[in-house]
Amino acid sequence: MIREIPLLATPDLSIYRVDHYGHEHHDDEQESATVYSINFVEHGSFSVRSRYGSGELRAGDVLVTQPGDTYSCRHAARIPDDVCLSVSWRTHAIEADDQCASAARSSSRRIISRNNRLGYLGWRVARYLAAADTSFAAEGLALELWAAVANDSRRAPYRERQLFWYADRVEAARALMQRRFAEHITVGALARAVGMSPFHFCRIFAELAGTPPHSYLLEVRLRAAASMLRDGSPVTEACFACGFQSLSHFIRMFQRRFGVSPSRYPAI
User: Fold this and answer.
1) Where are the domains of the chain?
2) Order of strands across the sheet that contains 70-74
3) How far apart are CA 83 and CA 18, in angstroms?
4) Would the pTM of this model clear 0.85, i.e. be above it?
5) pLDDT tens-digit map of 27-73
């Protein structure tokens, strides 16, 4: 019998762990998807057959479904032992966001072999679930997850222990940038803070986080500046309070990111 264990539920997002409860024989049947779902295989294996292709999924692989998909899962064992972590979004939650909808629709792949980027994001989902306040952080992963699904990663996957070691350090660097974005932060300082060489840190951060560290820091600063502007702060104050050293550079980066100048942003 298939068991779904609820881990998080919001109006737009549900996360649950799926396993086979008890010691009864499991009958494989055709299933129909009604939501957008990304399913991380945590343990065991099974095969999937659908009009998008067939294949075997093992621990670390990912099964993707979209509304209207029909597929069947096959298990070699009479009593399956596979376990999946399922992250699902209501249809309107994905399709109301142009970037998410574009990423979700851009790939016809439904079976994705284990890769480092998705492995890191699955690690982050599990980590958020262990925290006290999970909903905001978990919902913010939607675009990252669907973009990672859409992109075909060809780098050899790390061993699980190595991936988690890197993930801890990437997360520590992200937290440091979110906490100290107003300060002068260098890549060398970030690398030293997490115990890695600058070159190795930059490569691992970009691979797992999906963007280089300097681009991530720029995004953090721009979002902080946007928040200050919405609260009524002057443009110059928001610029220098968020770690920018040049007003002209800040204005140019802000307009590129938000499509409007900082002075006009509070009015939109």
Assistant:
1) 2-150, 158-268
2) 30-32, 70-74, 45-50, 53-58
3) 6
4) yes
5) 667 888 889 999 999 999 999 988 888 899 999 999 999 998 898 88
